[in-house]
Each structure stands twice: as C-alpha cells, then as structure tokens.
Description:
- 2 copies of one chain form a homodimer.
- Helix content of chain A is 18%, strand content 40%.
- With 383 residues, chain A is of the alpha+beta class.
- At the A-B interface, helix 2, strand 9, helix 5 and strand 21 of A face helix 2, strand 9, helix 5 and strand 21 of B.
Amino acid sequence: xxxxxxxxxxxxxxxxxxxxxxxxxxxxxxxxxxxxxxxxxxxxxxxxxxxxxxxxxxxxxxxxxxxxxxxxxxxxxxxxxxxxxxxxxxxxxxxxxxxxxxxxxxxxxxxxxxxxxxxxxxxxxxxxxxxxxxxxxxxxxxxxxxxxxxxxxxxxxxxxxxxxxxxxxxxxxxxxxxxxxxxxxxxxxxxxxxxxxxxxxxxxxxxxxxxxxxxxxxxxxxxxxxxxxxxxxxxxxxxxxxxxxxxxxxxxxxxxxxxxxxxxxxxxxxxxxxxxxxxxxxxxxxxxxxxxxxxxxxxxxxxxxxxxxxxxxxxxxxxxxxxxxxxxxxxxxxxxxxxxxxxxxxxxxxxxxxxxxxxxxxxxxxxxxxxxxxxxxxxxxxx
Amino acid sequence: xxxxxxxxxxxxxxxxxxxxxxxxxxxxxxxxxxxxxxxxxxxxxxxxxxxxxxxxxxxxxxxxxxxxxxxxxxxxxxxxxxxxxxxxxxxxxxxxxxxxxxxxxxxxxxxxxxxxxxxxxxxxxxxxxxxxxxxxxxxxxxxxxxxxxxxxxxxxxxxxxxxxxxxxxxxxxxxxxxxxxxxxxxxxxxxxxxxxxxxxxxxxxxxxxxxxxxxxxxxxxxxxxxxxxxxxxxxxxxxxxxxxxxxxxxxxxxxxxxxxxxxxxxxxxxxxxxxxxxxxxxxxxxxxxxxxxxxxxxxxxxxxxxxxxxxxxxxxxxxxxxxxxxxxxxxxxxxxxxxxxxxxxxxxxxxxxxxxxxxxxxxxxxxxxxxxxxxxxxxxxxx
Lengths: 383, 383
C-alpha cells in the first residue's frame, strides 16, 4: 500500500468514520479503521456493535502508487492526521506491520493490525431505495430522539420508531412519561415499520451536521438493519428487534381539551429555568417523572402561576400568556425538564399547550408548525 | 433587612464572592454568603479554609429600607439571581428565617441560616500597603502558578513563593522537575518573603480577569495571611507555613551553556503536540518527569530532530530553528507537557532554549522579554 492524499480531504472522511469506531472493545481490532486501497479507490471502514460505516474516498488529490489493505488504531491515527499541518500526506505500508506516514520533514510509523482479522461487514444491497431529504431527516431525528428512554426496562423504548404509510412517515419516541411525535410528508413507498437505536441516530445526526442540507439520502432496510447512503458514504445500523408499543391512544382527543394556553416560548423557558432552581430534584418513588417537579396553576381569573418548592425554599411566578381559553381552573404538576426538552425542539416563537385536567397527559405544539407533537404525563399532586 | 438593588450590580459582586465559597463543607453555613446591611452599606462575605472575601457594595441603585444580616445558601442564591431577568430585585428578611426575593411578577423564598453561627473573619489591618499593578500581578501569577506541585510530598511546593528585595519582586514556583521564575520591578518596600497557595492564586487571578487592568492593588500581610485590597474588595488568603526551598542554584550559569537554539514558538508547539501523540504517557518509575516523554537531538550538522516512541508506533520530525549555536551535539529527553506548559506562558513569537548537556536542566526564555525564566529537568535516557 502506497498512496498520497490531501490532509483535509482525508480528515473530513475520518471524522465521519470515527462515529463508527468501537471504544474499549474486547476485540482490539474493532478500535481500528480498515483502510483498503484498490487500483482506483480508497475505502475506509469502521464498525461497532451498533453501527458500521464505509466511505469510498474519491478525490482528485488521491494518488495511488500501490494497492493493499491494513487496519490502523483508529483514535491515534485520527489524532495524528488532525495534528499534521502539511497539505499532502503520504502513506506506505511496510511489510504489513507498519504504516509509515510522511509529510514534509515529518515521519511517523504506526503499528498496524492484520486486515484478515477484521470481521467482514455485510452492507445491505442497494435495491429499492426509500428517498428522504437530508435536512428533514436530520430535523426529525433531533425533534424525537431526546424523548427515548435511557434505561432498559423496555428495550424497544431505547429507539425511535419509524412508521411509513402511504405518503407519511411518522417518527415516535417515548420513555412512557413523555412522547415526541413527528410527521413527515414523503414520496410514496410500501408501508414499513422500523425502530432505530437512539444511539445510532445521534451518531447519524452528528454526521449529517456537516453535510449539504439539500442532499437526498437513500435508505435501505431489512428486518435487522437500516442502511443510509449519501454521497459515497454507507451508514448502517442494527434495528431494535421487537414490537414498539402502540401509542395511538396517547394523544388526547381535541374534544376533551379543557384549557388551551398560548405562551411566548422564550418567556416560558426563562421562567421554567428559574423556577426549576427550587424544585425537588428527585422526590417520589418514580424519580423519572418528578425530576425537577414544578406546578402550574390556572385560576378562575385566568391567572397563570408557575411554582416550585424544595428543602431550600419556594418560588412562584405569574406568567402572562399570549392567549388563554379555559373552561375550568387547572392545577397540574410535571417535570420542568420534560417541558424544557419539548420547548427546545418545538419551532417558532409561540407554543400552545392543551390540557384536559391535572391528571391527564398534556400536549404541546408550535403555533407555526403542526408536524411535531410533544406529550407529557403529569405526576400526581398530593393534596 | 429590606433592600433593593440592580440585578447586574449584585450579580457582578456575587460572581467574585463565589470564589470564596466552601463546597461540601461539613459546616453547612460555610457554603453560605453572609449578607450584612447597615444604614448605608451592603457587605457580602464568603469564606473557606483557604480564602475569605468581603465586598462592600456601593451603588447608586442600592436603596436600603431596613438594616439586618443573614446567611443565604451560596450556590442556590447565585443561581437564582443569575436566572432573574428583571432590572431591579428587592430582598426582605422575614423573621430571620426566610429571605424573600421579589421582582416583577416573581417571588422566591429562601430558607436562610443564623448569621450568629457564621464565624467572625479577621481581615488584616490596612496598614503599610505594598502596591502593585493589577495587570502585572495577574500576569506574574499566570506565568508561574502552573509550575507548582500538585501533590503534597513537599507542601511548600503547593504554592508560589514571593520574595521582595529592594525594587524587585521575584515569583518562584516549582514541582522540583520544572521551575518558573518571574521578576517584577516594584516600588521600594521592606524585604519580605511569602508563599501563597496555588489554589488561592488561581481564584485570585480569575477574579482579576474581569477587572480594570490598570488598577493598583494593595497587598497587606503578616506571617500567616495575605490580604489584597482593590476597589471595595478584600481578598484574603492563608499563607503556606514553612521555608520555601532555596532555588538560587537551579538556573545554570551562562558560561556552562553548550547549545543555544532559537525557535519559532508556534512551530515548536505544533511539532510537540504532534510528537506527543506517540509518546509514552507514563513509563518509568518517576511518572511526573517522563509524562509524554520526547527526545530532542541536535547532531554535528546542527540538524534538530524531535522524536518519540510508544507501544503504538514512533515519530520523528526535523525542526528548522530560527538560529542555533552549538559547540557539541546533544541528545536530551524531557516531558513534552512541561515544555508545552512553558511555551504557553512565554511571551512573544520566538523563544530561546539553552542547554548544557543531556543530563542537566535547560532554560527557556522569550527573545523579546527577559522577565520570565522557565527551567526544565530532563530525564535519563537509557542507551
């Protein structure tokens, strides 16, 4: 193996590849990047228990003198290429044992691993793609993935559920105390349902961060895997195996809504951040739902009050809503963290919250965008 | 107690006060801020085992309705004032038990502590000040404090030594493997010697960060304490009790110097950061001195080579010095971290390194500023 390439081009690809690297794997070779140089192409591959990434590096700066393959220790290799300040870098594989990296007056030798020990990774066949816009996909991931569970009581809740029906792709994530629901209009495709691990989606979203937003992404899947293809990148993740819970009854019916309050999003966020300072961090049996518990009260005069109390003191604030429609007073307790998480992803300056009563889940939507629905379960107030 | 003040003014003072707060103290009250409202003045005090801070808050926005004193939980109080977005905030002490904080439509109540339980803090008398420029003091701290020891084999090395003689104030810090020496021209004052805990100096430097650089600072001290006064702030720290080691023989004599190399600082930093990637993090018996060990070689042709090797591989780089004077070849091993730390504080674009031989400490200076001397001990090369 012997090739030369522009440092920036290589580093750009390595940054993507790093998202697929194993860390602290019992198999040392999984912490490595497989480099595969054929007559005309350079392939980079990384893989861990969730994700496999393969990139075909095509660039006018790539000059291949000799083909070959090897596996380099991933973290160190990326760290080195990052630290180089030369424009071009050359690589020479010496007796399949050492990769020599040369540029200007620098010469580094890295001990490499045997590419035959690297597991062969089966990427899905590129047949019958489901096409989706990069920007929309990235946004849908960010708007839902935070709502996934982070413990494994129900392993299916560790992922975001994607359900396609006719021209609608629905993203659902829940930890059973809150739920995030996003609807995307997509091209017609056969119905399917997949649940993708949150961890994989976070890595994927962060790869897409540096990508052209208007790029179309092709998705391929079978029962166990999802493969995303864009540019010359293959990103494959395992899928969660099982049935995602039916959440079709979670969203309350509009006719049951008793109180609708419209808030300026920034004002509500600022007040919640402040009131949360005096909220109990972890009180009751179920700490998930009462984390940073606060209470919202709406009285018969439509005055909206946010309050909290903990061992250090108590706070209350009157919030002036943009608009309010209430047929009955309301007292409801909930995790301010959940509400803040929801506000963070809801687009626009104004949001609307729809309540049934103090014991039922409530719904948040942006006033300017109805593709995203946030639902939060309150906790029981003892009084 | 009942007073009103501009939020920004108060927050500015609280940010300084926070540097003196105890964290996780067995005495809960030491995690508090003492608030003392007299007829015309507001005093804030914080204190921990090293530092005590007292601020006299004078501001045209301060309106005192009623005097009084109390102790508020420091972290929560600061967090709350930070989270407020009102211009003015009012404070009312209710039955010595609760501090009510009011602004606009917000009302917070914090449980307070008994000010009689707060230890009385003796600040030094403001007699016979030693005056020093804020900017110069801050810089001298930053240029030396990093070189202190961080373990307690010799507790005196946990501080920076200040020695005044005639018109010269000398700052010395060492962990016995490296030494940083700074000389400041000061006004005539009686000779003195103090050793100030690095921890206190770091807090002090970070308080000075937001201060007017041209401000004069008055220092007062006795055997046990140092008090700095600037604006309406008193910052007092304990001193280290004992004799700081004599370091007058550490700096090699100029006549013994065999090799002088002048480097572009940026180039040397970049090369060191890169070569350190393949350096052993912790090899020999004495891990302090061999941390990120690298080797510098100068051969008879004046070629300067930096190299490193660890279990993952090896690197070498030829560095082009700006200038070199050598009467003999040199091979020397040292911690790249120590060299990078020294380069970080040495001012200017070019630095000069003076070597005796591979076994003796070497000296770094900025070409443009001779007030700072950095000395590093090499480790023994086995070959």
